[in-house]
Write a structure and sequence with these properties.
mainly alpha; 57% helix; extended
Length: 79
């Protein structure tokens, strides 16, 4: 169902800027934010913290950096 939001112009500019940076539409960005806040999906940091809840913030950041390589696909990986 369509929904209208009245967002202050400065926030709309921020949404537009961040959405473009992430190569998303404003709508996709807002829906993703709503989903995260409703607990439907978790953002990467929250998912990592839940998975590695016993780690400190610094240790979790090190783990995130160490596993970032798994987010890329190299041409040679696929025939």
């Amino acid at each position: 169902m369509p929904m209208s939001l009245r967002i202050p112009i400065e926030k709309e500019k921020m949404i537009k800027r961040v959405a473009a940076k992430n190569k998303k539409t404003k709508t996709a960005f807002v829906i993703e934010a709503v989903d995260e806040n409703l607990g439907i999906v978790k953002n990467r940091e929250k998912a990592l913290r839940d998975f590695a809840g016993w780690l400190s913030h610094e240790e979790a950041e090190e783990l995130r950096k160490a596993t970032a390589v798994f987010e890329t696909v190299q041409k040679g990986d696929w025939p």
